Amino acid sequence: MKKSVVSLTVNGAERDVLVAPGTTLLDLLRESQGLTGTRRGCEQGACGSCTVLVDGKAMMACLLPAETVDGATVLTVEGLTPAAGLHPIQEAFLEGFATQCGFCTPGMIMATAGLLAANPQPTREDAVRAISGNICRCTGYDAIIDAVLDAARRVRAGRLATAA
Fold it and tell me: What is the torsion angle, in degrees rounded to the nearest 10, for the CA atoms of residue 127, residue 66, residue 77 and residue 153?
């Protein structure tokens, strides 16, 4: 089995990773990079717990062969979290009681980050569509959708404050 080198940027750090054929981005992140915030759920792209941003777009890491992300920029929930405190998306989820067991939360947060990167003023329908690939078995979706919209307000307010 011939391994290959995948070069990518993970959470701002350039990495060269030796991977075996069939290695998924999920395996690369969890096993060789120790980034366990990206959850291993169904491994079939149905639950969304492995959602990360690849070149700014929300994607399910369990479906991506590692070789296909060569040269890409990958952001995980660990990279979204600032050194001190929480990201506004994380604050909105925490304060809005949009988590219970927390298993789906990193994927939901990263799906939200992808949405807000593309559309900083989402409608409720936009929020529903953005998280539609993510399954939560604990909270129901109203609190999560409300948290997505609250996160959008918080992110916009932060952008305005930094632009001033």
Answer: -30
Distance CA 49, CA 51 (A): 6
- 134, 1, 2, 7: which is closest to 66 by C-alpha? 7
Determine the distance from the C-alpha atom of residue 55 to the mean position of all C-alpha atoms in its chain, rounded to a whole number. 12
Condensed to tens digits (0 to 9), the pLDDT of residues 92-132 reads 999 999 998 889 999 999 999 999 999 999 999 999 999 99
Distance CA 131, CA 4 (A): 33
Pairing of strands 73-75, 13-19: unpaired
124-to-9, 115, 128, 146, 152 alpha-carbon distances in Å: 32, 12, 6, 8, 11
Of 111, 79, 75, 76, nearest in space to 93 by CA: 111
